[in-house]
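RETRY 2/3 - previous attempt timed out on the joint model. Re-submitting the same 382-residue input unchanged.
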Amino acid sequence: MISIKTTRMKKLARALALLVPLLAAGVLFAHHGNTAYDETARVRIKGTVTEFIWTNPHSQIYLDVKDSSGKVVNWGVETNSPGILTRAGWTRRSLKAGEEITIILCPAKNGQPVAYAGSGDPGTKVIFADGRELDFTDRTIDKAVDKTAP
Amino acid sequence: MTGPVSRVNGKPDLSGIWQAEAEPRGPGLYGLGESPNSKYFRNILSDFKPGEEPLTPAGRELIRLHSQPGTVGPSLICLPDGVPHADLLPEPFKIIQTPGEILFLYEVETIFRQIFTDGRTHPADPSPTWLGYSVGKWDGDTLVVDTMGFNGMSWLDARGTGHSEDMRVEERFHRRDFGHMEVTATITDPKIFTKPFTISFVEQLLPDTDVFEHICYENEKDAGHLPGKAGR
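RETRY 2/3 succeeded.
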C-alpha cells in the first residue's frame, strides 16, 4: 500500500508538471467551463503505456510516443472518473504498463503532449494491438429498448 | 423501460439509479467532456434569451464575479453541487424510498440528501447547508419536495449562476414509466431572481449499474494552479 501511494505521488507530481503550462494559461477547468483541449479534433497517437492512474475526478493515461524524429515523448491523457469508466466497461486493470496502444484523443491546443479522451467526446477511444477497443460510452443505459431516447 | 411503475405503500416507487437524460449534442464546448448532459447543467437560465434573464442586479453581479478568469467554482475544488444541479450531472444518483424518508445517494462526492416524508415541516432556523433541508409529500402520483436552508455557496450551474441563503426550491418528481422520471424544479430567490422560474428535465433509469464512490479531492490538481482565488 505504501509503495503504491509513493508511486502515485510521483505520478501526481508529473501530472502537475504536464498540466501547469495549460493552467498558467488560465484555461484548464475540471468539469466546467472552457477547455484547453481541441474537442473538435480527433488525433490518433500510438505508444507504450507507462502508467494508468485510476482516480477521481479524472483518471490519467501516460504513454511513451515516438515523434517523427524518433524522439520518445511521454504523453499525458486525461479521461473520466472511475465511476464513468466502469460504466463504459473499464476496470483499473484495463491498461498495463508496457502495453502497446493507439489512442484517438483531443490534443491540447498549445501543442503540449497532453490530451483528453473521454465520454464527452464521441470517437475518442483506446485501440489495443489485437484490435480490441475500449471507448467511453455508457453501456448501462438501455438505448436498444428505450423508445424515448433521442 | 416503458413498462409500468411499481407501487409501495400506495404510492409510486421512485427507487432506482437515475441520471439526467442526454440531450442531442450541439456545437460548442462542454468542458472536460463528461457524457452529454442537460442544457441546465451549463446554464440554469438557458430557457431565457440573453438579455431577458430574470436576474436582479445582485444576481448579475454574482455571475460576473464567478466569471472572472481564474475564479474557481466550488465543484472544481470538490465541494458539493447543490440543488437542483446535483440532479443534472453526468453521474447518477440512487433513490431509496422508505416510508418515512426518501434518500438520494449522489455518486459525485458520495453525498446524500434526505427528503423527509413523515409529515414534518421545515425547522424554523436551520443551519445552512449545501443541499438544504427537504420535506416531501405526495400530490397524487407526484412527489413534491420543498427545500430551504441553503448556505448560498453552491453554483446553480457551470457558468456560475449563484444563489442566496434565502433560495427555496420546489421539485416535482413524476415517474411516468419504468425507465423515466419527469422532474420540474422551481427556484425562488428574490435576492437573485426577479421572479421564480421553472426548469423541466427527464431522469433516465440506469438499470444495470450502481452508484460508485467518487471522492474528487483524492487527486484534484487543477485548482491550486489557477490564478486568482476560489469563487465565492
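Residues 2-135 of chain A form a domain with the OB fold (Dihydrolipoamide Acetyltransferase, E2P) fold (CATH 2.40.50.140). Closing ticket.
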